[in-house]
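Tutorial, part two.
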Amino acid sequence: MWKGLVWALCFTMATLAVRPAFAQTSQITEDRPGFSLTLNGQTLRIDRSGPACPPRCVQPMMAAPGVGTVGELEVLEFLEIFVGGGQGLLVDARLPAAYAAATLPGAVNLPAQTLRADNPYRDDLLTALGVRNGDHAGAFDLVFFGTGADDQDAPNALRRLLETGYPATKLKYYRGGLDSWRALGLTVAGKS
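Running the prediction step on this input gives:
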């Protein structure tokens, strides 16, 4: 009996320990506060606790049509081949303060907001990315990331680039972002 009680107590403590400190209820996506289904006569409910949605909503795996999604090993290979070879950029789409605090090694900062159509300097940014007078033939290959799977900065940046005619074949999305990178114990650059 005591073994069962001790096991139950340990299980309860372990369950409480993995709950986020910011256990506020949040929506999963802007239009889905939670999910529920019936399985074998039981109702299963999936809710989310954490940062408020919006803006920190869970993002889809595919950020935009034609843009591939990559994981950590693909990011490392991209750094080695494309960034190291001067043919690509690893892009942190978060605001400068977040980028300065911590980012992936080798990343440059290009906040999603700077790619808005109403930014008078957007054409200069496109030129820096290899676009010449609307010609995307020399455009860099880019991998965009943000904080994590609930950060809309990278998907927004990718969609805005596609609106300019940037080829989807030259764009990738690292959905896991800084959160997944850190969770795997990979090296982080910045002040953190």
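DSSP finds six helices and nine strands in the chain. In part three we will examine how such features are distributed along the chain.
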